[in-house]
């Protein structure tokens, strides 16, 4: 049997389980539980509600997950702490990166682009960069592979990417976190003739948007969290995009901790350095409205969520819109 000359047997020879389609229940639950705290000014309460919900739903998934990137060390995080085992313990052994709310401040302020996310890869494949908080990143779609390089000036990268995408430099849009540390970077982007998309928070969504086909964002650059860099790499592998990172220690002490953990500071981390596995999953559900996914909404008797579900092995991008009966989510 064929479809347009393509043998369907080649496409569907070995259908298997897509773990992400089960994990999306956990991000949906976290997003829904965060809703009462949107715009209420209490980011800690929002985060706690999301963590509780995500942890509960992860416990129902048949896999043996170890949290590599979570809420922090066990002494400071009673749930979803680094090193915690989640899932039923049966099924595949995986590394898992969780952020019940990527953008707690956005949620507390009622601003857009907050989401709940989970990234998963084969056990032992995610880079543990927890000893160094910041990472400089550059992310693009597939057109950036072999074209842009984090070691080059931003203007040179913008011009090269514009040429590869067949568009004018003036039409290129670059996402970057709106932080004082990026003042020079933002000036250089604009001096090159490109436009900026300044992010209040959430460079994971910015990176994914830069790799999605048809997105209005062409590139995401700048210094953000190193855990977010690893999670983004899981998504970029599923999208066939491009990502590079360089660790940025804040202090000599942090650099020494990183060296002791085997991290490299003079090298560029490519996608396969950030996540060695070619079997990655990424799931995100919107908390508040954003370009990547819509936020949670109440429509009469139902609560509607929108999620994006990515898997590298199959190269699939799924949008999941779910309606949940509101009465099932009422607190006891």
Explained architecture:
This protein is of the alpha+beta class. 30% of the residues lie in helices and 28% in strands. It is built from ten helices and 16 strands. The strands form three sheets. Strands 3, 4, 5, 6, 13, 14, 15 and 16 form an eight-stranded mixed beta sheet that branches. Strands 9-8-10-7-11-12 form a six-stranded mixed beta sheet, with helices on both faces. α6 links the parallel β8 and β9. α2 runs antiparallel to α3 and α7 runs parallel beside α8. The longest helix has 16 residues. The chain is globular. The N terminus is likely disordered.
Task: Summarize the model shown.
The chain is of the alpha+beta class.
Ends distance = 53 Å
The biggest sheet, with number of strands, parallel, antiparallel or mixed sense and barrel status, is: 8 strands, mixed
- Tell me the number of strands: 16
Radius of gyration: 20 Å
Mean pLDDT: 89
Helix-residue proportion: 25-40%
> Which residues form runs of ≥5 with pLDDT under 50?
1-15
The helix-strand sequence is EEHHHEEEHEEHEHEHEHEHEHEEEE
Strand content: 25-35%
Specify the structural class.
alpha+beta
Shape: globular
Query: With helices defined by DSSP (H or I, 4 residues minimum), what is the helix count?
Result: 10
């Amino acid at each position: 049997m064929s479809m347009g000359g393509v043998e369907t047997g080649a496409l569907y020879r070995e259908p298997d389980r897509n773990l992400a389609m089960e994990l999306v229940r956990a991000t949906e639950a976290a997003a829904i539980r965060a809703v009462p705290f949107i715009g209420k000014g209490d980011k800690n309460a929002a985060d706690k509600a999301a963590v509780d919900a995500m942890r509960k739903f992860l416990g129902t998934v048949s896999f043996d997950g170890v949290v590599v990137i979570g809420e922090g060390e066990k002494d400071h995080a009673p749930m979803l702490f680094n090193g915690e085992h989640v899932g039923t313990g049966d099924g595949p052994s995986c590394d898992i990166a969780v952020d019940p709310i990527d953008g707690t401040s956005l949620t507390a302020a009622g601003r857009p682009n907050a989401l709940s996310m989970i990234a998963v890869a084969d056990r032992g494949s995610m880079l543990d960069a927890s000893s160094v908080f910041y990472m400089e990143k550059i992310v693009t779609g597939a057109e950036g592979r072999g074209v842009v390089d984090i070691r080059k000036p931003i203007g040179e990268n913008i011009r090269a990417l514009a040429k590869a995408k067949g568009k004018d430099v003036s039409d290129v849009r670059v996402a970057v976190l709106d932080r004082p540390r990026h003042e020079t970077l933002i000036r250089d982007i604009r001096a090159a003739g490109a436009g900026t998309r300044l992010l209040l928070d959430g460079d994971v969504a910015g990176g994914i948007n830069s790799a999605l086909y048809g997105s209005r964002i062409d590139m995401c650059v700048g210094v953000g969290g190193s855990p977010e860099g690893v999670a983004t790499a899981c998504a970029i592998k599923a999208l066939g995009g491009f990502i590079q990172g360089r660790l940025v220690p804040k202090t000599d002490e942090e650099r020494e901790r990183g060296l002791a953990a085997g991290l490299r500071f003079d090298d560029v981390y490519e996608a396969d350095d950030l996540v060695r596995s070619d079997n990655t999953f990424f799931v995100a559900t919107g908390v508040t409205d954003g370009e990547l996914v819509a936020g949670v909404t109440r429509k009469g008797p139902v609560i509607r969520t929108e999620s994006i579900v990515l898997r590298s092995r199959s190269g699939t991008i799924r949008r999941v819109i779910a309606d949940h009966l509101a009465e099932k989510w009422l607190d006891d």
